[in-house]
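User: Hey, my collaborator sent me this sequence without any context and asked if I could get a structure. I don't really work with proteins. Can you help?
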Amino acid sequence: MTDAELARAIAEKAAEQGGTVYFVGGCVRDRLLGLENKDIDIEVHGIPAEALEQLLSELGACMKIGKSFGIYGLKGHALDIALPRTERRTGVGHRDFAVTSDPFLGTYEAAKRRDFTMNALMQNVLTGEIIDHFGGRQDLQDGVLRHVDDVTFTEDPLRVLRAAQFAARFQFSVAAETVELCRRIDLSALSRERVMLEMEKALLRAEKPSLFFGELRTMGQLGHWFPEVQALIGLPQNQIHHQEGDTWTHTMLVLDEAAKRRDKVRYPLGFLLAALCHDFGKAVCTTEIDGVIHSYGHETAGLPLVQQFLERITTETKLIQYVLNMTELHMQPNIMAAARSRLKSTNKLLDRAVEPFDLIQLSVCDGLGKLPPCGETESFLMQRYEQFTAIMARPYVMGKDLIAAGLQPGVQFSEILSYAHKLRLAGIEKENALRQSLAYARKMRKENPDAAT
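Assistant: No problem. I've predicted the 3D structure and written it out in structure-token form, which is a compact way to encode the shape of the chain:
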């Protein structure tokens, strides 16, 4: 039985007891937009909690996901089954709410607690009738994101980020009155996990993730969680290479270019964050010399800012290291492509990258995210990437090869392996590289006979 079939089975049993079951939330919204949504939520009206639990137990193993506020599930199904409820704020945090379930609350009051009109829509599971108390259907047609209720909306600071995230994903405009409410909400009590989750949805699901940050800018809400992004606003660039405008504009263009390629890179979330962070360093090293703007060394100057930003929103070490690595190296591929650098040089660069393919894609996005766009480097860089991967797939000199040739592990052993690795990057095949490495070891021993190898 699918979740949709299960929802109907619950609705039929509920109807026998005088209850009504509605699809609620995103599944109704997405159906009206013609979008796929595998997550189905239903709300059961007119049946007390005990009766609902008995009803559900007749259909499977009932799980009390949140019995204190009336949320249930059935084992083996992702369907969320809830009673109507009210929420009252008890503190400043996102989770500081007292929740009270009430099966006889009514559809108007149940929908009133929702964040946006498009998410307050309900659909009768059996009849298909749409219940729209707050004009959500018209807002969907008009492409407008509008809050439901002034009081309930401002009680949850996460809704500011949700507004920006939904605006980006659906490319909706945010109603002026909703923007005004968002301006007045304090985001400082939010947890980093919740901030990261909303940003991640925008980065990985929006066609233009730049709209997420653009909406937060309009709301005046970049400052607390995204000050490094805010610092890019109005930051000048060299107009010869960047006719698109300030560093903010360039970064947003790069971010949207990166979104076009996220399905083919190795680490999509890290890749989008690298696109966002790649020019943070310009905020601390942009100078004007003889009327010309320069940002020399911004790729390394920005690393402390990137780390500071990422550690504010995540504890994931792998993600942080990936973005730092991509940021530090992002200038080099295009520079090498322009200079038509030797294979050995591009191999060394790609060997430094945690994800060589992703580095090339980021560099290409950096070139495309400006006016005039520059994408001519991609064919050269991809050719070099293919050569690099072919070389790295060959057999190569390992420690056991040196030992088999008579060398003993010692203080100079790692240096010999490092030399062998350089030969590998130069494209020298294993047999020849081993001979040269052994010759290098003999030279080292001759120069320093007291050092063990």
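In plain terms: The first strand starts at residue 20 and ends at 24. You can pass these tokens on to your collaborator as they are.
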